[in-house]
Amino acid sequence: MKVIALNGSARGKKGVTWKLLDSLLKGLSEGGTTVREFQIKEMNISTCRACLTCMHKTPGQCAQRDDMDQIYPSLRESDLFVMGTPVYTDNMSAQMKTVTDRCICGMDPFLRLDPANRVRHSFSWAMPSKFLLVSTSGFPEMESFQPLIMTFRAQAANFGCESIGEICIPGSIALQMAPQLLEPRLDLIQRAGKMLALQGKIESTLLEEMNRPILTVEKYLEISAKYEAWAKKSREQAT
Predict the structure, then answer these.
(1) Is the pLDDT of residue 72 over 80?
(2) Which residues pair with 132 in a beta bridge?
(3) What Å distances lie between residue 206 and 147, 189, 209, 210, CA to CA?
(4) Among 4, 72, 115, 204, which has the highest number of CB atoms less than 10 A from its own CB?
(5) What are phi and psi of 145, to 5 degrees?
(6) 91 Cβ contact partners less than 8 Å away, ≥ 6 residues apart
């Protein structure tokens, strides 16, 4: 199995998103998969211009030449697309949305009904057949992920792909203040990556275990008070 993983965090490798994604990729590699990862933060990728050149003049090829040219070949060759993004204003990061919008160049101007009887485009080239989401949220409630999960599943359907699961870990503000609390969950995620590589799926019981909140709201607020104290001090020093 070939895997392409995109880290859409604006913080790159400094954020919790990367810790989660890196653990999954370690497990996938242990299971024998070929993994190609991209740090979108470090790349020069312009937004889609909606010029439709890719549909009408150069089928399957975007008119823009930038770092998406590094990503397209891996998308075409991979079996699994791992989307790593934090929740920003109730959805994926702007960096990740830019990339998914630029993947529209794989669509034809022709319409058809998909297996769910929804009108979709046909494709000049195919995205990876399976999609997996890896995400974190600053807030402690699992409800924070609902808009992102809905968008992620819709993206998979738009590209004619299968959403095989979501790994969502809430409470990243507190987890950055107390990183030792995250370590056991990273071990589980690495185990899930190896399972996915060997079995082609992550068992539902393991998904449920990974997605169980690490902190209660009360504990989250207690730990986050340290962050608030630091933020207050930082503001005072800036004035």
Answers:
(1) yes
(2) 82, 165
(3) 23, 9, 5, 6
(4) 4
(5) -90, -10
(6) 97, 147, 148, 151
Q: How far is C-alpha 231 from the geometric centre of its chain's CA atoms?
A: 28
Distance CA(43)–CA(87), nearest Å, equals 20
SS3 per residue for 87-129: CECCECCHHHHHHHHHHHHHEEEEEEECCCCCEEEEECCCCCC
Instruction: Give the percent of the chain with pLDDT over 70.
Output: 100
pLDDT tens by residue, 155-164: 999 999 999 9
DSSP string, 157-220: HHTT-EEEEEEEEE-HHHHHHSGGGTHHHHHHHHHHHHHHHHHSS--HHHHHHHTS-SS-HHHH
DSSP code for 34:
E
How far is residue 223's CA from residue 176's CA, in Å, rounded to a whole number?
10
Extract the tokens encoding 74. Answer: 């891996």
Q: For residue 234, what pLDDT band results from cuts at 50, 70 and 90?
A: confident
Q: Does residue 239 have a pLDDT over 80?
A: no
Q: Domains in the chain, please, with CATH?
A: 2-238 (3.40.50.360)
Instruction: Determine contact, residues 45/102, Cβ cutoff 8 Å.
Output: yes
As a whole number of Å, the end-to-end CA separation of the chain is 54
List, for residues 171-214, the tens digit of each pLDDT value. 999 999 999 999 999 999 999 999 999 999 999 999 999 999 99
Amino acid at 75: L
* Coil, helix or strand at residue 46: coil
